[in-house]
Amino acid sequence: xxxxxxxxxxxxxxxxxxxxxxxxxxxxxxxxxxxxxxxxxxxxxxxxxxxxxxxxxxxxxxxxxxxxxxxxxxxxxxxxxxxxxxxxxxxxxxxxxxxxxxxxxxxxxxxxxxxxxxxxxxxxxxxxxxxxxxxxxxxxxxxxxxxxxxxxxxxxxxxxxxxxxxxxxxxxxxxxxxxxxxxxxxxxxxxxxxxxxxxxxxx
Length: 203
What we know:
Blueprint: H1 7-17, H2 24-36, H3 39-55, E1 57-58, E2 65-66, H4 72-75, E3 80-87, H5 90-99, E4 104-108, H6 126-134, E5 140-143, H7 149-164, E6 171-174, H8 190-198, E7 201-202
Parallel strand pairs: 3-4, 3-5, 5-6
Antiparallel strand pairs: 1-2, 6-7
Helix pairs in contact: 1-2, 5-8
């Protein structure tokens, strides 16, 4: 970072610039916006950021991000628990919920298989998903990985693992190609997500 800035400013610019989608120029603008803002604004931002990790936990059932043992979706008695939509990230759940097209429940993997980056099955919540299925009552698993190489590899691995435990009558489907290859669920619009979900196919 430019040595003309005091160390405290440079450090915060570097911190913002390390976030996805934020370059050095945007990071610098954010920092100087905070400098111009009232002191309580910066304090509130700092407190919110520091409490983020301490206040949040993973839902005991679906591994979505929540502040209690169960997330609001898993606590909702109107949801169809026989159908589980498997997502890469919690942000993907938010996109589906915003679209309002899914009335089942979710399971969040928190990533995809990527051996080059050292991400194997044990790094994800795959075992938790298999336990949910083995517990009974699940009729369909919808694999909603992003249409990437890693996403496809993860979907294939999950399919094999699910078939190995041989749950009776379990249907495994994949969301349709309403999503362009290489795109991400969290950036898709509601119409695209609805088309992808309604056109899901056997996997």
